Amino acid sequence: MSLSRAPRRRSTSGRALLLTAVTLAGGLTLTACGDGSGGSSGSGGTNYVQGSGGIQTVARAERQPAPKLDGETVAGDRLDVSSLKGKVVVLNVWGSWCPPCRAEAPHFAKVSKELKDKGVEFVGLNTRDSSKQPAVEFEKNFGITYPSLYDPIGKLILRFPKGTLNPQSIPSTIVLDKDGKIAARSLLAVNEEQLRKMIDPVLAEK
């Protein structure tokens, strides 16, 4: 009897371990490179306006300041995003390993170059790349000329306060107004048209 039970116990245990592994893998995939389809606002979203393409905005009077974002860039320089106050700043959370990030990268490269002379600065937040080299190659391959803070374990991302339009997936894009406050967010990969729809209204503000 004991011999007949042993294989069943091992089989049940094996199935449980496999199920746990699959569940964990699924959770990691959604966290690491989610599609943002949940539409979570970070606070219940009572002050947020949900636009087309998953873009959320917040009224000027209700915006919250962005956290301090500073540190070493992928290129090895130092950057403090607060030094860009007075300009519209586009923050893009990305990783070289993320397919949606690769899909949107050409749009970011194009728009960042076209809007720089109009007072728009782009800053990347590179995360979950265990070394800088893949990120350097990513920027080279896609013609990214703006800096990216190197944030391999997401410390900078966690500085965003709850209850704001904070980044919750990879990729995420956040637009800061000229006062350094969070004005718009997308939790989806964006194309050129969507990116400009996020930026243009903020840039037009006096």
Written description of the protein model:
The protein is an alpha+beta fold. The protein is 35% helix and 19% strand. The protein contains four helices and nine strands; from the N terminus they run αβββββαβαβββα. The protein has helices at 2-33, 99-115, 132-142, 192-203, and strands spanning 48-50, 55-58, 70-72, 78-80, 88-94, 120-126, 148-150, 172-176, 182-186. A seven-stranded mixed β-sheet has the order 1-2-9-8-5-6-7, covered by helices on one side. It has a two-stranded antiparallel ribbon with strand order 3-4. Strand 6 (120-126), helix 3 and strand 7 (148-150) form a beta-alpha-beta unit. It is globular, with a radius of gyration of 20 Å. The N and C termini lie far apart (82 Å). The model is unreliable at 1-31 and 35-46 (pLDDT under 50).
In short:
The chain has 206 residues and is α+β, with helices and mostly antiparallel strands. The protein is built from 4 helices and 9 strands, in the order H-E-E-E-E-E-H-E-H-E-E-E-H. Helix content is 35%, strand content 19%.
Secondary-structure blueprint of this entry?
Blueprint: H1 2-33, E1 48-50, E2 55-58, E3 70-72, E4 78-80, E5 88-94, H2 99-115, E6 120-126, H3 132-142, E7 148-150, E8 172-176, E9 182-186, H4 192-203
Parallel strand pairs: 5-6, 6-7
Antiparallel strand pairs: 1-2, 2-9, 3-4, 5-8, 8-9
Task: Report helical residue fraction.
Answer: 25-40%
String of helices and strands = HEEEEEHEHEEEH
Q: Strand count, sense and closure of the main sheet?
A: 7 strands, mixed
Lateral strand order in the biggest sheet: 1-2-9-8-5-6-7
Distance between the termini: 82 Å
Radius of gyration: 20 Å
- Coarse structural class: alpha+beta
Mean residue pLDDT: 83
Segments where pLDDT lies below 50 for 5+ residues? 1-31, 35-46
Q: What's the number of extended β-strand segments?
A: 9
Strand content: 15-25%
Shape designation = globular
Quickly count the helices: 4
